[in-house]
Each structure stands twice: as C-alpha cells, then as structure tokens.
Amino acid sequence: MSDTMDARATLDRLWKPGCDFLGSKVAILGGAMSWVSERNLVSAISNAGGFGVIACGAMSPERLEEEIVATQALTQCPFGVNLITMHPQLDALVDVCLAHNVTHIVLAGGVPTGATIRKIRDGGARVIGFAPALALGKRLVKMGIEALVIEGSEAGGHVGPVSLNVLAQEILPFIRDVPVFVAGGLGRGDAILSYLEQGAAGAQLGTLFAASTESIAHENFKKAFMRANARDAVTSVQLDEQFPVIPVRGLSNEGSRRFLKHQAATLQKFQNGDLDKEAAQLEIEHFWAGALRRAVIEGNVDDGSVMAGQSVGMVKEIRPVAEIISTLVDQAVEALERREARIHTPA
Questions:
Q1: Is 346 inside any structural domain?
Q2: Which CDD domains does the entry mention (predicted)?
Q3: 33 and 180 co-located in one domain
C-alpha cells in the first residue's frame, strides 16, 4: 500500500504544474472535438477531476454563450473554451468567454495575434496555444501564451505531419517557462507518464472521451470506434498538389473512398476546362460539408466523417468519463510501481 501511495505522490508531483495551471485534480484535458465537446462531455470531464474544453468551432457568439451557461449549470469546476483563430467573429467570441468568467481559452487552428492574447489575459483568463514546432512554441511564449499543447499526427481530426514522439523530443527539453501538454494517440496512463517524465505538464485526450458514456455522439459512432484498429484511423489523401487537401485523421469508410473519386472527377473537369482552379478547389473542399455532423449526431458512419485518433484501437468498451480518468491514473501509478521494483531488484 505504501508503494502505491508513494507512486501516486510521485505522479502528483510530476503533473503538479499542469494541475496548478488548469485548477484541476489531474492534468488531463479533453481535446476539443466539434459536435462532441459540448456541455455534457465537458462538465463530465471537469467533474471527474480533469479539465473539459468546449469546442466552439463555427458557433456564433450567441450559440457559444448558450453552451457556456449550460456547462456552468452542470459543473462548478474550471473548464475551457477552444476558439478557432480564423473565426470571423473571434473578438466577439473572446468577449463572450470573458463576460462569463471562463477561466481558460485555447486558441487553435492558426497562429493567434498578440492583440488577441493580450485581450484574453487583460480580461482575466489564461490563454493556451498549439505549437507544432519548437520555433513557433518559443515565439508564442514571447507573445504571451501561458501554456502550450503539442499535438502529434496520431491525433484525430486536423493534424500536422509530425508524431508526438518526435515533437516531445524537439520541444519538451527546451520550453520550461510555461506548462506544455502533450496530445495525439494517447490511450494509456503509462504513456502519459513517460511524457511527464520528459517534462510535460499533462496530457490532452480526445478519442477515449468521444467514446464515453457521457459523449452525445451517436451509438453508431461509438460502435465504429470499438470495432476499429489503430491502422483504420488514416489521414485524408490528396490526389494533386495543385489542389491542397487539409489532412484530417478519421476512420476509413465509404465516404473517404468516395472523396478520392470526387477529387479525381474534379481534377478531370479542371483539366478539360469545365472548371477554373478556384471553382475546382471549392468543389473539393465542399465534399465534406456537414460530414462530421452526419457521423456524430445522425450516426451515418458510412458517408460521414468519423474523426478519430490512432488510439481508437484502445477503445474496447463505452465507459463513463470518471472511470476512464481513474483507469489512466491507475495505469500511471502501476507503471511507477513496476519501475521502482525493477530498479531495486538485485541483479
């Protein structure tokens, strides 16, 4: 028992910077997933000791206000809001967060301006940014970002090209001024522990929580996660470099196969002169319009976009959020106990 208590104390010391920054019992953030990270899941994560994050996505300021108020009715614990920096009403969305005393704002989907960072901090909230490379991470810290998330290509949804394993080695030894949270492909507590020991302050997980009891995702969506292997979560394919496709990781399905055919057909129209370059690009981009909602809310996992990280292979059952977090903590503690036993066992 004392070994377990010692291991838990070690874990608590390792992620204390993350817990202190977030105001949570464990330094585990919920990844912001459109249609999924809403009041029910966000409040469940925060109530279980983690840190829930509302995915604002394309919400209007009025719609975001409604979601914040509804979340606050379900939890007294801190939670954050993820805002897309390219949103045309970004300033108004920040105002809504500040007016409702949201404690943390996550700026995603591009490099935020210094003005936006200052506005959030002057308004009394903490500000978190994403760093896909060391140079950008250092720049963001100089601009006033108070914490960073480094997300590897193993993650679900929109992803960069570099794995978390590489990003962690590139960034964690060199950014010590602010807490750095790791994300992408995380599904076990012992894996989280390994990054804490490299200097991370905590971890962000999405896929495990998307398949939780409290997630409003359709039963078909969750069952697709349970059936999937890691190799089934693939990034969208770009057929021609003239027409860029933003890489998005999700489960391979009929929709993703049709997307390849759609690109090929659109490319042929462009080459035949039936479409100009701009119209062809728009036709490719519009293919997935509404596809995430189709999968998450309507349960059409054949034609919809089933965004999932490679950790989807570790989703074996639909469990409550509190149980997921408890299991992650237990796995980290057990890993610490095993390591101590190995170190102190005589040769």
A1: no
A2: NPD_like
A3: yes
Contact 21, 51 (CB under 8 A): no
Residue pair 203/11 in contact by the 8 Å Cβ criterion: no
User: What confidence tens digit (pLDDT) does each residue in 28-84 have?
Assistant: 999 999 999 999 999 999 999 999 999 999 999 999 999 999 999 999 999 999 999
Distance separating alpha carbons of residues 136 and 199, to the nearest angstrom: 18
159 and 242, same structural domain? no
Number of domains in the chain: 2
The answer to whether residue 224 sits within a structural domain is no
pLDDT tens figures, 138-164: 999 999 999 999 999 999 999 999 999
* Domain housing 20: 2-217+315-339
Q: Which long-range contacts (CB under 8 A, 24 or more apart) does 256-264 make?
A: 258/303, 259/287, 259/288, 262/287, 263/238, 263/239, 264/239
Coil, helix or strand for 180?
A: strand
